[in-house]
Amino acid sequence: MQVYAGCALPEEYLYHLEFDVWVRLEPDGGARLGMTDVAQTLCGRLVSVSFQKRPGDRIRRGRTLVVIESAKWVGPFRSPLSGEVLEINEAAFRQDIAIANRDPYGAGWLMRLRPDALEDERHQLLDGVSAYPLVSERIERERISCMRCAE
Predict the structure, then answer these.
(1) Is residue 149 over pLDDT 80?
(2) Topology of 2-142 in CATH?
(3) Which residues pair with 16 in a beta bridge?
(4) Virtual CA dihedral for 63, 68, 72, 75, nearest 10 degrees?
(5) Residue 54 CB neighbours (<10 A)
(6) Is 32 helix (H, G, I), strand (E, B) or coil?
(7) Is 151's pLDDT higher than 70?
(8) Range list of H helices, the chain
(9) For the ranges 2-16, 27-41, 113-127, which has the lowest average pLDDT?
(10) Counting runs of H as helices and runs of E as strands, what totals does the chain give?
(11) What is the CA radius of gyration of the chain?
(12) What is the Cα–Cα distance from 100 to 29, expressed in whole angstroms?
C-alpha cells in the first residue's frame, strides 16, 4: 500500500480520481466500490449516508449511488461503472456511521455492482501505481493530510 501525507492508496485497487472512488474487481465478476482516503478526509466525519439505489437496480456510469453528508459537506458518491447493484453496505453504516472514516478501503465500502460495460469503461480507471503520482500531486496542491476518525 502506498501512503502519502497519511493518505493510503492500495496498489491493487482501481481509481476514478474525478469521483474520488476506488474499485476492487472481485473474482465473481462483481466490483466493490468505496470512497478514497482523500475523499473521506475532505468530507470529515460522516453524519449521514443515504443509499439511492437498491440491489437489482440498474445504474449508469456517473450517476449518484449514495448521498453522503458530513458536518462540512453534502454530496454524491457517483458510480465509475455502469451495471446492476448487487449489494449495499447499509447495515454497516447504520451500526457505525463513521466506518468509512476509519476503514475506507475495507469495512467502509459502499456498494457492489455487476459491471455490464467494464471493457468500455475500464479506460477511465487507473490502477494504484498509475494513480499514485496524481493523487500525491493533488495532496500537495490542496495541502491535504489524511486522518482517520478515532473510535
Answers:
(1) no
(2) OB fold (Dihydrolipoamide Acetyltransferase, E2P) (2.40.50)
(3) 21
(4) 10
(5) 10
(6) strand
(7) no
(8) 37-43, 90-95, 99-102, 118-121, 128-142
(9) 2-16
(10) 5, 12
(11) 14
(12) 24
